């Protein structure tokens, strides 16, 4: 009988929610190292369209990915209101350009629904699942899927 109680309860995790246009997304808060204001990036020649360029972050070169472009969404030119989430993805630091960071969410795994079949394969590449929270639909992003393609697309 004690075996039943030793099974782990649903996994609860903290996520950081952000907006791109009128859509909300979130990522695991443990991957995000800092959130900073938009700094104009130096473009790189022949970089994929979603690569805004690079910035100097305390002496380190930080590549900036425009998540809106990466997700195939309509995006606008970055302004002072935009933010860069500095995240640790696949063994490296990357800046993720988003419109705004909205809040921190506590979530249990069973609250996450699978990505609907009506979503395009491109969307399903990045979206691990979707959940409803206080009348909002928020997509859970798989950060590891954002960076591996950089090398393939740049080649």
Could you write a compact summary of the structure shown?
This protein is mainly beta and 155 residues long.
What does this structure look like?
β4 and β5 (60-66) form a beta hairpin. The protein is mostly beta strands. The chain is globular, with a radius of gyration of 17 Å. It has helices at residues 2-6, 67-70, 121-126, 148-154, and strands at 12-20, 23-28, 32-37, 51-57, 60-66, 83-89, 92-98, 100-108, 127-133, 136-141. Strands 8-1-2-10-9 form a 5-stranded mixed sheet. The chain is built from 4 helices and 10 strands, in the order αβββββαβββαββα. 25% of the residues are buried.
User: Helix/strand/pairing class, anyone?
Assistant: mainly beta
What is the β-strand count?
10
Indicate the overall shape.
globular
Q: Nearest-angstrom radius of gyration? A: 17 Å
- Span of the ends, CA to CA: 56 Å
Mean pLDDT across every amino acid position: 85
Helix content: 10-25%
Order of SSEs: HEEEEEHEEEHEEH
Q: Order of strands side by side in the largest beta sheet?
A: 8-1-2-10-9
Low-confidence segments, ≥5 residues, pLDDT <50? 1-7, 149-155
Range of strand content:
over 45%
Number of helices: 4
Describe the largest sheet.
5 strands, mixed
């Amino acid at each position: 009988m004690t075996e039943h109680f030793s099974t782990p309860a649903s996994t609860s995790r903290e996520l950081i929610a952000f907006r791109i246009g009128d859509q909300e997304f979130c990522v695991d808060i443990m991957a995000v190292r800092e959130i900073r204001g938009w700094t104009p990036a130096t473009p790189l020649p022949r970089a994929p369209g979603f690569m805004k360029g690079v910035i100097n972050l305390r002496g380190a070169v930080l590549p900036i990915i425009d998540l809106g472009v990466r997700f195939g969404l309509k995006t606008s030119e970055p302004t002072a209101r935009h933010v860069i989430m500095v995240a640790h993805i696949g063994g490296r630091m990357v800046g993720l350009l988003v419109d705004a960071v909205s809040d921190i969410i506590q979530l249990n795994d069973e609250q996450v629904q699978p990505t609907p079949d009506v979503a395009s394969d491109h969307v399903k590449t990045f979206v691990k699942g979707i959940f409803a929270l206080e009348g909002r639909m928020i997509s859970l992003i798989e950060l590891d899927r954002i960076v591996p393609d950089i090398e393939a697309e740049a080649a």
